[in-house]
């Protein structure tokens, strides 16, 4: 009988491992911000056909490059004079794999359709990619307008910590050397301080440098004592985090992860306790059976009792 119990307990442990491994995911497609043109096109018009072709080309290009831009005149169906030329681009974060880039861009295009129905122009930033389209050319045009600015809770930096954070931010801004100049995607870290910056690759090297420096300057002045900070301008962004804290996207993903871990720990403790209790009670039941020739409860009813206490189906123990 004991051998059967030993064989069934790993099933319960396997359930715990599956539960533990199913909660973690990278929020690359978490929404940060978006905007739409007030002008509308007529559904079913050549404009819509050109736009669909443009957005499809963005998604199809993403598995092969972290950045690309297109104009509708270069894509089938070829636009006529009835439809103005459309411009579009996408920019994936510099550390994404090609499959993740495509997934993020596809998600952004889908959300744009919901956010900006029939709009002649739109832009959307997810955590790991940016997509924009319009009928007015914006390619190669500098844009340092502040789109989003967020700061975390205050940490009350000491002089040393503040200097370390500023040094990391200076590095990603390009003033710290180390080959950061004119790179579209820059990362830096020191101790538990981490920073990342990126500009859209339609900008020239000097435009990129200028935009990122502006974003970093705003981070320093607006989030001086914060645990994390995000500044997104029209064509670039800069972000930093201290001690693992990170905004993640406005949803404060680190807090969500903490809650998931706490809940998971409680569930694992509860299930382990129930499993031990079942083994103990089954042992007592066998002693009663040997001493009195009968039991006061059945094993099947015992399994049913504890399965009703758990938040997911429980595998009955065979004793």
From TrEMBL:
Record flagged with keyword Repeat: yes
One Pfam family in the UniProt entry: Stress-antifung
Subcellular location: Cell junction, Plasmodesma; Cell membrane
Entries under CDD domains matching the protein: Gnk2-like (cd23509)
Any one GO BP annotation for this protein: defense response to bacterium
Similarity remark: Belongs to the cysteine-rich repeat secretory protein family. Plasmodesmata-located proteins (PDLD) subfamily.
Name the UniProt record assigns to this protein: Gnk2-homologous domain-containing protein
């Amino acid at each position: 009988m004991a051998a059967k119990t030993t064989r069934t307990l790993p099933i319960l442990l396997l359930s715990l491992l599956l539960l533990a491994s199913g909660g973690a995911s990278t929020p690359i497609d978490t929404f940060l911000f978006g905007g739409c043109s007030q002008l509308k096109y007529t559904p079913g018009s050549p404009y819509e056909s050109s736009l669909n072709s443009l957005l499809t080309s963005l998604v199809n290009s993403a598995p092969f490059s972290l950045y690309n831009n297109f104009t509708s005149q270069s894509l089938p169906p070829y636009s006529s004079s009835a439809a103005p030329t459309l411009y579009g681009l996408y920019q994936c974060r510099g550390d994404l794999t090609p499959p993740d880039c495509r997934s993020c861009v596809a998600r952004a295009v889908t959300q744009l359709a919901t956010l900006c129905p029939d709009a002649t122009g739109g832009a959307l930033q997810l955590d790991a990619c940016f997509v924009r389209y319009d009928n007015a050319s914006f390619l190669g045009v500098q844009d340092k307008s502040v789109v989003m600015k967020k700061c975390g809770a205050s940490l009350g930096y000491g002089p040393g910590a503040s200097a370390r954070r500023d040094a990391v931010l200076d590095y990603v801004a390009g003033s710290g050397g180390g080959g950061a100049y004119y790179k579209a995607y820059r990362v830096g870290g020191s101790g538990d301080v981490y920073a990342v910056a990126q500009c859209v690759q339609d900008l020239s090297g000097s435009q990129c440098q200028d935009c990122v420096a502006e974003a970093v300057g705003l981070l320093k002045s607006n989030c001086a004592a914060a645990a994390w900070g995000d500044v997104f301008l029209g064509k670039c962004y800069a972000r930093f985090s201290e001690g693992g804290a990170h905004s993640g996207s406005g949803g404060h993903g680190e807090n969500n992860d903490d809650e998931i871990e706490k809940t998971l720990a409680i569930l694992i403790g509860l299930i382990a306790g129930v499993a031990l209790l079942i083994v103990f009670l089954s042992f007592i039941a066998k002693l009663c059976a040997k001493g009195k020739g009968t039991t006061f409860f059945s094993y099947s009813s015992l399994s049913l009792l504890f399965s009703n206490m758990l938040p997911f189906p429980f595998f009955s123990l065979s004793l």
